[in-house]
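Morning!

As promised:
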Amino acid sequence: MSRPAAAVLLTGSELLDGRTRDRNGYYLGASLSRRGFRVTHVVLCPDDPEVLRRDLAFLLDGRPALLVVSGGLGTTHDDLTAAMVADTTSHPLAADPEALRMVTETTRRVAQRRGLALDELLPQMARQARLPRGGRAIAPAGVAPGFVLHHGTTAIVALPGVPWELEAMWPEVLAALAVEAGVAPPCALTVRLYGWGEVKVAALLGSAATDRLRLAITAASGEVTVVAGYDAGDREAAAQADALAAALRAAGPVFATDDRRIEEIVADILRAGGATVAVAESCTGGLLGARLTELPGSSDYFLGGALVYADAVKRDLLGVPAALLQAHGAVSEPVAGAMAEGARTRLAATYGLSVTGVAGPGGATPGKPVGLVFIGCAGPGKTVVRRYEFPGDRPTVRAWSVVAALHLLRRTAAA
Amino acid sequence: MSRPAAAVLLTGSELLDGRTRDRNGYYLGASLSRRGFRVTHVVLCPDDPEVLRRDLAFLLDGRPALLVVSGGLGTTHDDLTAAMVADTTSHPLAADPEALRMVTETTRRVAQRRGLALDELLPQMARQARLPRGGRAIAPAGVAPGFVLHHGTTAIVALPGVPWELEAMWPEVLAALAVEAGVAPPCALTVRLYGWGEVKVAALLGSAATDRLRLAITAASGEVTVVAGYDAGDREAAAQADALAAALRAAGPVFATDDRRIEEIVADILRAGGATVAVAESCTGGLLGARLTELPGSSDYFLGGALVYADAVKRDLLGVPAALLQAHGAVSEPVAGAMAEGARTRLAATYGLSVTGVAGPGGATPGKPVGLVFIGCAGPGKTVVRRYEFPGDRPTVRAWSVVAALHLLRRTAAA
């Protein structure tokens, strides 16, 4: 059973010249893969009509089931997506009544906010209501609507390039595609594990009945995601998927069956328990706090913390005993525990979460190689410290450390 | 004067399915743009021979001056780059003596480290020494060598996909291309400014003589980069470039004429002065500390800091007076100053650097809109606080805040 192919075309000159680091390609690739698509291309393309035309033709020529185009739906001369899709697919541009209704509504809000008359803004904004003929408008999250256009066996989906707009509109797109003929994303069951490597998960999959499933395993920073895709209506496949999920749950450290990022899961657990967290970071230098505060509203549960790079700061800010540092070194189980307890006590938090390790490339000593990290979590009852040896270079060790800390907090707070 | 075109092909299935967020495309796009190339494509491509072959043919068909391919140079069956380039360009694979010398040397080191005999490892590793005929090996930073192959008017450069290896090998590639015929990157003068918007910089450029220059302006998080490209040997253009640089220096807030990131510039300044820094972060939640500790060896100048999300923590960890918080609110000039001074004093650092603001989307109050950020820098002599109103969503406000803080530290420490 081959998986349906999907291609992604990200438009915007700023993505190619170092101004903006793309985030939509990563988001869409992950989402599509989890739903059982095989992502064959992610192409970044400047706002140049000739290049865009050539790229669209090339990607359509591969006959993917789905082509997602992001960006170029605004009101300026750089916004070429609708015109180029119209051109490439021979569906000429025409004013779409539903799109015009959406654009008029958002324009009215914008006009009110800026104290302008609707008539002043609408002519310029109405450009966004011109779609390739046969296209269907997708309601905007910001100002510009998107659209879906069926072209041969390919569903072309155009969305704004602003990440939050794209991400807000995406679930509706997936749902809409599922009910339209021809491009229904296959059913997919997601199971996510932390604490088992990819190889161990693969071994378990190998011992289960999966002949009617399209299996995909992906791993990132220690998290392993299993997606079992199957065709809607295939009851035997659905039963295999359920059995597989049950087997993974019974044997493995399953932490989620949805797409929530670990910081969202932690946020939900802390909020539900009315709990708070404070961090104590050494080698991650602030990455853990930054991750915990990525979500709006994180002040509900995140109090703050201490970045304790220098040993003197570990003592002064967190009260880690000098004798402990002397006897065991900064990268050690007792110091990780004392850091977590110091953060918990000094910030009066429910949980104190600490990270101390050797991120590299320098700093290794006999018995303490690059990648050695201790993570501590101090809670109301007790303090737990785990020892890890992470692979890879400095950014990798730091990224794995943050994810490990969030999972230790998840397990502690959910217990 | 048209700019030479460059295309980038990033191979690796993990880049398309959500496992890994690409960083090479962003790095190469920025570097090539700064050197005057017009980057027409960044394509992410799975480890699938059919897709890779089709993508290579498509990109070569556009006849770019430069095609950079990353990834797929290792020793496993997924490592297809050399074979596919050979196939697409009709330069058959052959063992390259220079590449074999490089691979043997690195294999010897790997064998020693793992306590293995060279003969055990070499047969597998020698695969990396097979290059398309006519290709020239590029010395590896890790294990796999890269190569350059001239095909028609295109220079094809293949590099490993591991970011640190690619980044370590890249300067040599640029230098080598510059001395080889046909693909010499044009001369380029770089001037980087902080504190002026793109529009203001563009206005100054408009009043200078630039008819012999290829100008590119890019902006990111408040930093504006001007690149003036010209052909080697064009003396008139070189004079225009020099005059332009002088004009920008005379009128604008120029901070660099090279590619060093702001955290590298700050690191150089602090190291040169034997100075240290401690941070006090509210809305950035650790991003500033994370950025300052991205560089290996940052413990030379980074001591640590306090993440003070909750008001009580601002008081307890940094000694910000409750009365100050009460009177002015947490997002205010006096509190930013007290945070910076608290970090400086409590961590005994040369400089204390603080950030407090409204990152959004919630949290705005009358007079304190989303995007309002105060940044403080406390030094030996005095404390400076700056007020900013940054555009955009939560991640944007946080990213701009970090860059603003690093620039305030740069100005203070360099003074």
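Chain A is about 40% helix and 25% strand.

Hope this helps with the figure draft.
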